Amino acid sequence: MTAYHPTRRSILKTAGGLTAATALGAGGVLAAAPTAAAVGDGFGLHIVDRNESDHRMWYYRFRTDAIGWDPGVNVLLPDDYHHSGRRYPVLYLLHGGLEDFITFDAHHNIRGLTAGKGLIVVMPDGGPAGWYSNPVTTNVGPRNWEHFHMAQLLPWVEANFRTYAEYDGRAVSGFSMGGFGALKYTAKYYGHFASVSAHSGPASLRGSGGAVTHWANLSSAAVELGGGTVYGVPWDEARVTADNPVQRIESYRHKRIFLVAGTTPEDIQGYANEIVVLETQREFRSHLDRAGIPHESHEVGGGHHVRPHLLERDINGVIARLRKA
What we know:
It contains ten helices and nine strands. By secondary structure, the chain is α/β, with parallel strands linked by helices. It has one domain: Rossmann fold (3-Layer(aba) Sandwich), CATH 3.40.50.1820. Strands 1-2-3-5-4-6-7-8-9 form a nine-stranded mixed β-sheet, with helices on both faces. The protein starts with 7 loop residues before the first helix and ends with a helix.
């Protein structure tokens, strides 16, 4: 990558997604009264907006000291949630850079891919370049996405929806920056997720000359932190190590692991994204192989984007792995 000198525009694009962030909000008329689920606040979260009028897709926006603005969350419920009385496994689905909590609904047919299936899907904001982290420095107020997701949102979901609040009841998956976040959360919070998936998500912070750590710092400085950085300049080496999937290989043992990377990017944008993704996933897989940890991986043609058939395969694999509704 030494021949490539990123412009601000390319930095914004390589933050983890090819589509500019969709406007925040869910639209529609708010539900007239609270429903049985999601009543009240808690876990450091205060509900400032909500919409529970759709049969399946419920929307919330929270005020939290962890984030300097009010992040949104979509919760996609199974078709029979309201009358079954059953509990369900949960998939936390994390968006890429320059995307937001409605991306999988707006662009990737998440409703269709989960129709008739016993699975709750939680899709939270993660910032345009938050990297699912608590940053080393910020000039725009708090952007502690890791704290918001793991210490606040996850227990709030389990207190307010009929989930299995246990290891075999949770999976995490994501695209690009969100794929990295899924790998990171699975390793750092060992007992939380029985399945992890990365769709074009980088899997090594130090590989490829530290390209992903530089990528995280540049993109977060440009669009998330007002010149601050996720990992610091110079890097906070202990934090890089703690977040680095390839340095936490034993944390993936006995888990379902699903990886996707493209092999034929066609332009400099594809190079900046997918070639690094491919190299770091290969490094990660080599460590898994040496440790005797099974995984499912797919190297497929094309660049940096979500592949619908593999997202569907992933969702079916999540359902097969987790405790059944």
